[in-house]
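INTERNAL AUDIT FORM
Audit reference: QA-55
Scope: verify that the stored structure record matches its stored sequence.
Auditor: D.O.
Record contents follow.
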Amino acid sequence: MSPTRTLTHEGEEIPRAVRRIVDETPILDIHTHLFPPTFGDMLLWGIDELLTYHYLVAEFLRVTDIPYDEFWSLPKSVQAERIWQTLFIERSPVSEATRGVVTVLAQLGLPLVDRNLNAYREWFAKRSLDFHTKEVWEKANVRKAIMTNDPFDPVERTFWEKNTPVDKRFWAALRIDPLLNNWPQAAQYLASLGYAVKVTLEDPTLAELQRFLAEWLDRMQAKYAAISLPPDFEYPGAPVTSTLLEKALLPVLRDRNLPLALMIGVKRGVNPQLRLAGDGVGTADVSTVERLCAAFPGNKFMVTMLARENQHALCVAARKFRNLLVFGCWWFLNNPRLILEMTQMRLEMLGTSVVLQHSDARVLEQLIYKWAHFRSILAMVLQEKYAYLASLGWDVHEEEMRRDIRAVLGGYFEDFLELRLP
């Protein structure tokens, strides 16, 4: 019997069983940029937001000669129309970003034959946001989504200060990029909020910084703290960075048994004229992650890295440190060929002690396409793994497949949260 025809213990063909279980398993999406509907305009949704997502903006501007300033001066609706005409009508939507929009339209039941942007707009305009959010979540089959919550953003901060209700489907993550990336500016901002901090990191300032972190972690009931970092981030590094980590951030997180998520490898503003679409990628030094894990065995670290070149070394590091969780195919790696490569490598090196993907969704409907596309890849990889085991005589049980698939679709993150380190 060939491996592709091998049966599960229950008698179902393995390819069919794996695909079914992958599709049925609800996802814990551990990193998004979404918000609950109660946060108003901070929740981006609808066809114009999908079309003006920064992935598509970058793709559009590289094939047109419109001046950058002229493009940015256009109303969002006109930007969307230009992008639709150029990337979907004058060209076929074969890139991952354009293909994703088509997937969303198809799964929402919108006709693709006429390619009528105005008809799509009318359909979205008639929708209740609460009903639409519910439908998107059901189609994506997501059980929880972890937000990116920035107390340094004055608009977002007001929602938390007013105790705005947060839908139970959303969990928070405290985003604190300015602390490590621009401490002088962060110190000035914190002082304006009433925290007695100075640029010089003396004991009173460190105590106030710990108070700030503790207050916001508790206010948000955050599941972790997160920082996006450049490729040259290192530990030990600059005295300010090392002090902030050692004497403020990591002690507070250790006391709460919460992870620090490090997202390493982004080069900000490679082309500033592209704005949010203008960031790039650089290869980082994985030994920095190893040194952090070794120096702080009582802290948990979640790490995703932006450069393909870093992925193998990061998997090796995760094999050595149980306080390290590798997660997701971030940003420029969110392309099928690279996701396939990374998914195979991580399963082969780490088993199911990994969270293979996160959506990084900024627009609500992106949950649909990012998870639909990933489920297809995950099913393909696992079909081969389970069929091989069965071909050797290892009984493959459905309940065990469900256990494994739940783990790599976010369940292992919950196990990691419960992990108690010495």
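Auditor finding: record pair retrieved intact. Residues 46-137 form a domain with the uronate isomerase, domain 2, chain A fold (CATH 1.10.2020.10).
Action required: none
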